[in-house]
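Record type: monomer structure entry
Structure origin: computed from sequence
Chain ID: A
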Amino acid sequence: MNFKRNKKVVLILCALMIFSLLAGCGGNAAPDKAAGDTIKLGFLGAKTGSVANYGIPGEKGMKMAIDELNAGKGILGKKVEGIYEDNKGESSEIANITTKYITKDKVVALVGDPCTGLTKVAADIAQENKVVIFSAGATGADVVEIGDYVFRNTLLDTVAAPAVVDWMINKKGWKNLAVITSGNNGYSTALTPIFKQAIAEKGGQIVLEDTVNDGETDFTAQVTKLKNAKPDALVFTGYYTEAALIMNEAKKKNLDIVLVGGDGLYGQDLAKLGGEAVQEKVIFYAGFSTDQPSPETAKFLEAYRAKYQEEPDMFSAQFYDAIMILAQAMETAKSTDPSVFKNELANLKDYPGVSGVTTFGADREPIKSPVCLLTVKGDKFPALLEKIPVQAK
């Protein structure tokens, strides 16, 4: 055996192994990760856990959009592949999944999460690695500010909540309002100040402020205080589960009150858990309704119903639109490089999506209209109560 020759071979093999490991670590995203025949997109959403009502329909909307693209020419003639992990609505899970998508699966974009707090966790990682993240639901503050690879296509709370408060005070005459916040819910703690500011600006009065926590089931104390305060309506800024339980307790105490909130109430479990207590008694805003559809929405509704034998919701529509907007940006840019097609995303104007017409402003924030006021009516959920046209400031 030639020792020197064998030593040289060993050194070359070691160098190759180190190079291979470094390549797999994926610091910043490689410019041409879709250089092969497949473009990979990573789904961010919960399929189990407390916010699965957002992620499950979102995944269906994303899959439908990808199937439609692949039935045609894909994107730039390449097949599109979705990768679907379950983040369970947990920060640690979404961090791990985002890292996996970027470093192992080599996605060119992340789609989701519908929740603001979870989106921020993933967006920090995506921005650092120069991969586009497109949230199909995050409505809270300080999301796109994370960086120029971060986008969303949802109706913003800062646009919707003031419009809804104006409707409550000036159209319905509900001027004395109670406000309940879910203290351990980032969505709720961020939305409450927006509602409070709008109430003050529109001439309303807050007669009671109180808190609950996600996961609680006994709201006897809160509803007792609510009944004593005698508000015209209740603003609850949390999620659908707690809203349903609050309204069940209100019904037990013979408190006849309307609960108004944001799109965090948009979950099938609102109707299932709330039963009669939420019938036309819970009103929430969203950027999507199956009632009075546009031509684009009508086509989507027909295809979705045929594919899944169920009604789509805001999240399935927004995930669908997010995929199609990403596809359009890559086609226009003639590139799957996130650093290139993100610039086309930023220039989006008057996109006729199934979830509404979307334009990105100079700050890359979505401008969407109208605000849809939705409720529970009979067996229909959600049922359109009214559409409010708005303009972003």
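Annotation 1: The two ends are 78 Å apart (CA to CA).
Annotation 2: The chain has a mean pLDDT of 91.
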